[in-house]
Task: structure prediction
Amino acid sequence: MLKDSLLQRLVLSDQGSKFTIAALIVIGVIVPFLNLAMPEGSFLHVSDYSVALIGKYLCFALLALALDLVWGYCGILSLGHGAFFALGGYAMGMYLMRQIGDRGVYGHPELPDFMVFLNWDALPWYWYGFDNFFFAMLMVMFVPGLLAFIFGWLAFRSRVTGVYFSIITQALTAALSLAFFLNDFGFGGNNGLTDFKDILGASLQSNGTRAVIFICSVIALIGSYILCRYIVTSKLGRVLISVRDAESRTRFIGYRVEHYKVFVFTISAVLAGIAGALYVPQVGIINPGEFSPLNSIEVVIWVALGGRGTLYGAVVGALVVNFAKTYFTGSKLFVEYWLFLLGAMFILIPIFLPKGMVDIVDQWKKKHAQSKATEVNSKISGDAQEHTS
Result:
């Protein structure tokens, strides 16, 4: 019976994954096409603002997916994934700042405007190489991954788990936030990095460039989803679930639990960094506010409301919550009450749907499958009775 239940959950999860990937492919094709091919006065035209907004949602979905990999399948509740997201964003922002050159306000050929304003004499050593796109993209993955590896190794080796791990990850985020707010830290202080001009020689204000970045966001989300799906359905994924459900038992039978935790935590941080890198050119700014511990807590809410431990639930949760947030804040009817409406959603969904929003679809599929099985069994019983008589 337990085996049948597990098989049924895997089938439902596969169906959800197929639908999610198909929906993302449709979005990746339709949205840029309607933006570029349809005239602005057309009803079918998707505005530049909408393209950037949906692209931002996709980056948030990738961040939620990264968190669901460690929380939903390994039981690691990280309240610091916003830090990895911001680090990836800063790596991309550093590249974009280096591309400005002498087109800045102060016209310095090498130093960004904020460094000229603060009387910096030379470019800091940690900015070297960021004028090269491929080096910057390597740093987008390497910096969050390295931080997660070191932090995770120290924490998991000391067997820090549960709420204690959540607290120290949030402390890490808060510490980075304070550091990046400092002007002397070399990352723009409170204002952060902004006023980007182009990427790979293409203007960021161009509709074509925005469409390409949007498509890259879709591809990154689909590719990351497939990678996460491969991990959680492999033997490694079964060990991760075992660590989540019975860590002591898993350790007792011989598995080096800390190695598995460090691996999945590092992969998750890399995915979060990629999400941050795609986020920056679409919103046009990166500042220390992205390190805010509240941002990391909000990501946890997306995953919990969507459906923890399903992957596609994390994507759905991020898209739905952020769309609701935009709608409530932009509507004249709800503008004064949007915080209450979001709060009500955060309370009611866990009460009535403890497994998240995707549980609605899963319950419907289960009932449909049960009714179909009942019909088949009834037909077989009827045929058997006719044959006997």
